[in-house]
């Protein structure tokens, strides 16, 4: 069974870590540091497996690794796993990454960590090896990429459909606000007009003419002191 899969660079910076047995975060960091110290000090011309560190199980577990350019790929496994089989699995993993990212490099593992984990899950799940045939793995990854593209296309289509509706709704709302404002302004401006019209209808000059004033001389005579 595979206990952990670690990928770190020549300076010990982890680029991928997958533990199939629970360790808290501090312990995981200590295991990565210890594993790097054990692996990095070995010469390139020695065998690619050794006993595991004390933190991850000691002699009951083995560290099987490959060194590619600036990256170490390390699998921590128990005695039930074949060293040569795990070395081949590491090679399949790296070649699959290389096919997916076109000449994979350290930056691909940093900026596409989700995709790297997905690829790894096609090979290993729960510490058990699922698939070693790279053709099958690439086929599944291609199917996943097609599905993601379809979902992306549907999302863009729905977005393009929703945007005109949103713009139309906004335009209708703006028009309603404009009509309401127009009615308010029309009501304010119509008030003086209605007042003027009412005054005109009163025909005040004619009413003044029609007024019958008393005869002033006669009125004076009629005054009683």
Structure commentary:
This is AP-3 complex subunit sigma-1. With 225 residues, this protein is an alpha+beta fold. The protein has two domains: 2-132, 2-Layer Sandwich (Beta-Lactamase), CATH 3.30.450.60; 140-185. It contains seven helices and seven strands, in the order ββαβββαααββααα. The protein has helices at residues 25-40, 83-101, 106-111, 113-123, 134-202, 204-210, 216-222, and strands at 2-9, 14-19, 49-51, 61-68, 71-78, 124-125, 128-129. The strands form two sheets. It has a five-stranded antiparallel beta sheet with strand order 2-1-5-4-3, with helices on both faces. A two-stranded antiparallel sheet has the order 6-7. β4 and β5 form a beta hairpin. α2 packs across α4 and α2 (83-101) packs parallel to α5 (134-202). The longest helix has 69 residues, at 134-202. The termini are far apart. The mean pLDDT is 80.
User: How many E-type strands?
Assistant: 7
Strand arrangement, major sheet: 2-1-5-4-3
Decide which structural class fits the backbone. alpha+beta
Strand content range: 15-25%
The top-level CATH class of the largest domain is Alpha Beta
Helical content, roughly? Answer: 55-70%
Unreliable spans are none
Any idea of the CATH topology of the largest domain? Answer: Beta-Lactamase
Number of domains: 2
Quaternary structure of the protein: single chain
CATH architecture of the largest domain: 2-Layer Sandwich
User: H/E element string?
Assistant: EEHEEEHHHEEHHH
The backbone outline, from C-alpha atoms, is elongated
* Whole-angstrom Rg: 44 Å
N-to-C span: 136 Å
């Amino acid at each position: 069974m595979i206990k952990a899969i670690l990928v770190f660079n020549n300076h010990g910076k982890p680029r991928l870590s997958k533990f199939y047995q629970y360790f808290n975060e501090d312990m995981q960091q200590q295991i990565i540091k210890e594993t790097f110290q054990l692996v990095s000090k070995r010469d390139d011309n020695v065998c690619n497996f050794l006993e595991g560190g004390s933190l991850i199980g000691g002699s009951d577990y083995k560290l099987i690794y490959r060194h590619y350019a600036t990256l170490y790929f390390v699998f921590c496994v128990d005695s039930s796993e074949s060293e040569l089989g795990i070395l081949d699995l590491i090679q399949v993993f790296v070649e699959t990454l290389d096919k997916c990212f076109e000449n994979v490099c350290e930056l691909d593992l940093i900026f596409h960590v989700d995709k790297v984990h997905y690829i790894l899950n096609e090979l290993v799940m729960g510490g058990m090896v699922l698939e070693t045939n790279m053709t099958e793995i690439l086929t599944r990854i291609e199917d996943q990429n097609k599905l993601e593209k379809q979902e992306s296309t549907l999302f863009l289509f729905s977005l393009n459909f929703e945007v005109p509706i949103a713009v139309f709704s906004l335009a209708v709302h703006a028009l309603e606000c404009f009509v309401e404002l127009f009615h308010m302004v029309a009501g304010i401006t119509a008030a003086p007009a209605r007042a003027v019209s009412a005054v005109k209808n009163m025909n005040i000059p004619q009413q003044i003419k029609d007024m019958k004033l008393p005869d002033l001389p006669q009125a004076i005579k009629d005054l009683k002191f």
